[in-house]
């Protein structure tokens, strides 16, 4: 992780001219996007804008017609397989839950842990100690220390989401992708999730696709707005919020101050 910190202000991800088609329908059209290390970057845009499809492309789930993706040291990851992309350091939390309901919180994290084979052969006891430390640190980070022995199925909706984020983080990704992480959460859970995002960006670069504009305004540093599969604008939240084209897309007319509280959904 210290390696990540040293590279602040350097580019971790560079996507050029990403184009995706489903049959004849172009879902993403010449979309370019770049990210710096340890950025907390939100992607917003109306339904159907192509946000989820873009995350699908980044994690190798959906193939591009055209485009180039460079990760970390300018390494080309275009069209790698999903498991290869995970190994390169891109972790994705999907909207549908993927926790093991009958296992405890602790067991779920244990299963998700990145295995270090070098240590296995040398010093088992030492390895176990290190793994436990890692799991307990993760429990604390995601706010589930008290729930370590609770079966995952008994957690609240919000707690399940945090556990899943913890499971992806056990793989120590350099880039974490989250699609609408606060959907269905209570206000209190939303707040806790926002605080979690701020902690996560200390450990890796975070991309969040989000609908809720109030939430985005509260936590976003950088925002990219997608519309009709294309880049509408990007920049700091204040700049994006004042952009006339963004206001038009969200409200169908110009200069409406209510934009500030409008949602994208
Ligand atoms: P967003 O996440 O911004 O709401 P999506 O990326 O889910 O948008 O979808 C972008 C567009 O691509 C939509 O018009 C959607 O209907 C279409 N689309 C997404 N996935 C598929 C698919 N597997 N097959 C056909 N069309 C798809
Ligand atoms: Mg979506």
Question: What's the gist of this structure?
Answer:
The chain is of the alpha/beta class. The protein is built from eleven helices and ten strands. The protein has a single domain, classed as P-loop containing nucleotide triphosphate hydrolases (Rossmann fold, 3-Layer(aba) Sandwich), CATH 3.40.50.
Layout of helices and strands:
Layout: H1 2-6, E1 11-22, E2 25-36, E3 40-44, H2 51-58, E4 66-71, E5 75-76, H3 82-88, E6 90-93, H4 105-112, H5 117-122, H6 124-141, H7 157-169, E7 175-179, H8 187-203, E8 205-209, H9 213-219, E9 222-227, E10 230-236, H10 237-242, H11 244-251
Parallel strand pairs: 3-8, 3-9, 6-7, 7-8
Antiparallel strand pairs: 1-2, 1-4, 4-5, 9-10
Bound molecules: adenosine-5'-diphosphate and magnesium ion (MG).
Magnesium ion binds next to helix 2.
């Amino acid at each position: 992780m210290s390696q990540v910190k040293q590279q602040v202000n350097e580019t971790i991800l560079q996507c050029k001219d990403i184009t995706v088609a489903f049959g004849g329908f172009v879902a993403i059209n010449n979309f370019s996007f770049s990210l710096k290390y340890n950025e907390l970057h939100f992607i917003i845009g109306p339904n159907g804008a192509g946000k989820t499809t873009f995350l699908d492309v980044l994690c190798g789930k959906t193939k591009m017609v055209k485009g180039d993706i460079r990760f970390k040291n300018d390494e080309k990851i275009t069209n790698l397989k999903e498991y290869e992309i995970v190994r390169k350091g891109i972790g994705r939390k999907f909207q549908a839950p993927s926790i093991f309901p009958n296992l405890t919180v602790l067991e779920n994290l244990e299963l998700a842990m990145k295995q270090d084979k070098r240590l296995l052969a040398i010093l088992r006891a030492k390895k176990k100690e290190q793994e436990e430390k890692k799991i307990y640190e993760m429990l604390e980070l995601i706010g589930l220390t008290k729930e370590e022995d609770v079966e995952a199925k008994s957690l609240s909706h919000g707690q399940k989401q945090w556990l899943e984020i913890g499971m992806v983080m056990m793989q120590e990704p350099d880039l974490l992708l989250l699609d609408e992480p606060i959907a269905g959460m209570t206000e209190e859970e939303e707040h806790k999730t926002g605080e979690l995002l701020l902690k996560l960006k200390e450990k890796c670069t975070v991309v969040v696709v989000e609908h809720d504009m109030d939430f985005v305004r509260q936590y976003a540093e950088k925002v990219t707005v997608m519309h009709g599969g294309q880049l509408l604008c990007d920049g700091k939240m204040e700049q994006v919020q004042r952009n006339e084209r963004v206001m038009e897309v969200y409200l169908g007319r110009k200069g409406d101050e209510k934009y500030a509280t409008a949602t994208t959904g």
